[in-house]
Amino acid sequence: MSALQQRLEAAIRAVPDFPKPGILFRDITPVLEDPLLCRAITEGFRERLQDVPIDAIAGIESRGFLFGMPLALALGVPFLTVRKKGKLPWRTVSHKYDLEYGSAEVEMHIDSVKPGMRVLVHDDLLATGGTATAAAELVRMQGGTLAGFSFLIELSFLHGMRKLESYNTKVVTLLTY
Fold first, then answer.
1. CATH number at residue 137
2. What does the pLDDT read at residue 101?
3. Pairing, β 145-154 against β 171-176
4. Catalytic residue among 63, 91, 154, 165
5. Mean of the per-residue pLDDT values for the chain?
6. Which of 90, 110, 133, 154 has its CA 20 to 30 A from that of 162?
7. Does 138 reside within a domain?
């Protein structure tokens, strides 16, 4: 385990039975209270992605914004927002996807992704992969290609990685449970 992984594991709080009984929630708010760790996280992502051609980073609302934007700044590329339906003020492209019990919909501004743009999709957590693949679909719908995916945490027992592989096999996670 790397030093960064050890620092992350020590900082992430496990909260049992949240948001419902039987769920062990991985709370990253203690991570955000440590500016040196946040800087190390951004650098960890930058190092792991240095050989990947990236034209923009699409961060998924809202926790994907937390490290997606600093990573975009570190790489010198635009940051694109993927938000829940109805949150963006201008014309959008949207994608609806299924959840375990129901569905959800995410959207981007219609002019965020330029044709041929190589976009990295970023979020804090990879669970089942539904939201990340929905964001990937938004990138494709606008003529972009997937440069890969990045996540602070992967919950490997939920097998979200399987859904991502059809888009791009470049997936960076800093900590896996």
1. 3.40.50.2020
2. 73
3. parallel
4. 63
5. 96
6. 110
7. yes
